[in-house]
Amino acid sequence: QVQLVESGGGLVQAGGSLRLSCAASGRSSSNYVVAWFRQASGKEREFVAAISWGGSRIWYANSVKGRFTISRDNAKSTVNLQMNSLKPEDTAVYYCAGDAAAYHSSTYYSPNEYRTWGQGTQVTVSS
Question: How far apart are CA 79 and CA 97, in angstroms?
């Protein structure tokens, strides 16, 4: 059973950068997918980006494409989300989630595809 723990949130001004990390413990396969979701106050949880543990698949939401980069460090068992050119609308609680079922799924962007979740980390972007 994989467990996920996020870190790296904080307060940043618009245009700034933050790097989130998701540490995975437990056994996982190369097709295990780790995704980042975010949930702003009063809104539904939305997909941000995802990567398979073997690195063969990477997905981004259109809203973050070109600004955010997802990567994995297998040696450290972490998945990182580098967030650049942050905007106030990026303010949310960011969660990492994992499941192997998402690898072959056409709905990899749905929270329902992921059974394992971290506790979340707050990201606040001031204008």
Answer: 10
- In the chain (127 residues long), the average pLDDT of successive 10-residue segments reads 92 98 86 95 97 92 98 91 98 96 90 96 97
Q: Are 2 and 32 in contact (CB under 8 A)?
A: yes
Q: Which residues pair with 36 in a beta bridge?
A: 49, 96
Q: How far apart are CA 23 and CA 16, in angstroms?
A: 23
**What's phi and psi for 112, nearest 5 deg?**
-65, -15
Q: How many CB atoms lie within 10 A of CB 89?
A: 11
Count how many residues are written for the chain. Answer: 127
Is residue 24 within 8 Å of residue 3, measured between CB atoms?
A: yes
Q: Please enumerate in sequence order all residues whose Cβ is within 8 A of that of 106, keeping only pairs 6 or more positions apart, or say none.
A: none
